[in-house]
Amino acid sequence: MKIEFLGAAKVVTGSNYLITTDKWKFLIDCGLFQGGKEEEAMNELAFKYDPGEIDFMFLTHAHIDHSGRIPYLVKKGYRSEIYATEATVDLCEIMLLDSANIQESDAEWENKRRIRSGKAPIEPLYTMEDAQRSLSYFRPCHYEEIIKVNDEISFRFTDAGHILGSSILELWIVENNETVKVVFSGDLGMPNKPLLKDPAFIKSADYLIMESTYGNSVHDDYAKSMDELTQIIDRVSERGGTVMIPSFAVGRTQELIYQLNNYYSKDTIHEHQRIPIYIDSPMAIRATKAFMDNAYYFDDETKEIIRSGDNIFEFPNLHYVNSVEESKALHRVNYPRVIISSSGMANAGRIRHHLKHGLWDERNAVVFIGYQAIGTLGRILLDGAEKVKLLGEEIAVKAEIFDLVGFSAHADEPMLLDWLNHFEKKPVKIFLTHGEEDESVPLAKTIKEMFHIDTIVPSLNDEYSLNTTGRDLEEKISKEDMEKTLYEDFRLIQDNMQNLSNRKELFDTGKMKAEEYSEIKRTLNDLKLQLMSLNMKTGK
Questions:
Q1: Bridge partner list, 430
Q2: Fewest CB atoms less than 10 Å from the CB: which of 17, 148, 188, 313?
Q3: CA distance linking residue 435 with residue 453, whole number of Å
Q4: Whole-number Å distance between alpha carbons of 16 and 3
Q5: What percentage of residues in the chain have a pLDDT greater than 70?
């Protein structure tokens, strides 16, 4: 069998891998290339394979550099299953439709320009219809559930701790009656972050494809970065300025809301410090609802806060901005505030309008809280540009620029090495992807020195053989592990049901709308029926 690296090689762009066995062809991720004009031009290139010949696909998480080319894949003839976690499916419904809307809008704007210059019009990369059609191929899966795709291929998703629903993919592939286990790290998160659980550790692999976004970096302490952010907000507001935060709509924005909720709930915060916080991103607002609908993915601390009655995504000085008119109105007022708006690399979205109106003012500040790819406006600002062109106008950069990497949702070098060290059976070969060379190449050197494992940094379109290891499938998938996982999940459902029934104050029908009561009643009945079904099947 072989693996081809069709994205996420020596740069952080669109994640896309093709695995070919003697019987099957399948994909892991299919993301939009992101960065400067050269990277984004790659999105128009034809696939290196016939989409109609692909048997199935796995998606590690919903971020657009992993999922964003799926509608184009479907447009070109893909008609098979896309396996992903339930939360990833929910988020993709938001993100792929939003991406399609951008593709259509960009094509419409470009065609107006082309018509004026006598050029032929262009088509969008894909349309809303393509995106909607692609959603019909998604197949939601649970964490820790071992799924048999066919007689030769089984897989399991485990929690990667990067964004809601993000997963590490374990693949067991049988070829010539022998099995090889391939693990894809996906995008790994950092431990001890709010909302999400820590990345899971994997026991074994024959081959490992691991991300290296920050493979040669050590992040600042998360608490320190949060403290620095609140200090920036207080300092800028005291001088009458605006703090603009380009933020990824899925993951980082929800994390910020959660942390600012904690900050403004403190008794030590004075009233004048409770300045307005605006979330100006329709997609972030929809994603926040998806987070609430998938609260069972949260870590224990967050679940306990929710059980206490606190809405973690609401507080008095937080305001969600929905319409374009409301967004424009923010430019016509002159009082201290924080504007959190997508996109995270400032390459698109409403944040560009806020930067156009605020970069020139030295009272203001721009705070970056995530990775900024080469060629993006965010990277240009971090590199110290004195002027930038925004929406057809040259803008002087007078605002303070901050980079708080402690907020990063990607694992740094110590975390990546610790995660690798937890493999009880180490892989025979490691491929480092999803990282620029100054991050991935030093990490490869460190891994070779620490673990004595052959470690490769592939280039775009590189192809490698994966040899089977002579072990059978039963040795690879431990029945005891499967039973243990099932039993723990069963007990968790029972405990949660008992907790719900014991907390009658949650169900004050006098304060509850009829439709809310009916929905809760229906959900509880569904859970009871599922528990009865589990009891019958397991005898427990």
A1: 208, 455
A2: 148
A3: 19
A4: 11
A5: 87
Reported as type and span, the H/E element at residue 254 is helix 252-264
Is pLDDT of 54 > 80? yes
Closest residue by Cα to residue 15 from 58, 46, 49: 58
Q: 199-217 pLDDT, tens per residue?
A: 999 999 999 999 999 999 9
Of 1, 25, 5, 4, residue with least CA distance to 14: 5
Give 493-528 pLDDT, tens digit per residue.
666 666 666 555 555 656 666 667 677 767 776 676
Yes or no: say if 380 and 37 are a contact pair by the CB < 8 Å rule. Answer: no
Q: How far apart are CA 239 and CA 242, in angstroms?
A: 9
CA distances from 380 to 225, 361, 370, 372, 388 (A): 22, 18, 14, 9, 8
Task: Judge whether 218 and 415 are in contact, CB under 8 Å.
Answer: no
**CA–CA gap between residue 135 and residue 329 (Å, rounded):** 35
* pLDDT tens-digit readout, 257-304: 989 998 898 888 888 889 999 999 888 888 888 888 888 888 888 888
Q: What would the pLDDT profile of 94-146 be if each residue is shown by its tens digit?
A: 999 989 988 998 889 889 988 998 899 999 999 999 999 999 999 999 999 89
Tell me: the pLDDT tens digits for 304-350? 888 777 888 888 999 999 888 999 999 888 889 999 998 888 887 88
Query: In 10 A of CB 323, how many CB atoms?
Result: 9
End-to-end CA distance of the chain: 42
Task: Tell me the one-letter amino acid at 282.
Answer: P
Task: Say if pTM beats, i.e. exceeds, 0.70.
Answer: yes
| Cα–Cα distances in angstroms (integers) from residue 10 to residues 13, 34, 49, 456, in the given order | 9, 13, 21, 11
- Output the 3-class SS for 376-430: CHHHHHHCCCCEEEECCEEEECCCEEEECHHHCCCCEHHHHHHHHHCCCECCCEE
User: How many CB atoms within 10 Å of residue 79?
Assistant: 12
Rounded CA separation 336/273 (Å): 10
Quick one: tokens of 81? 């299953």
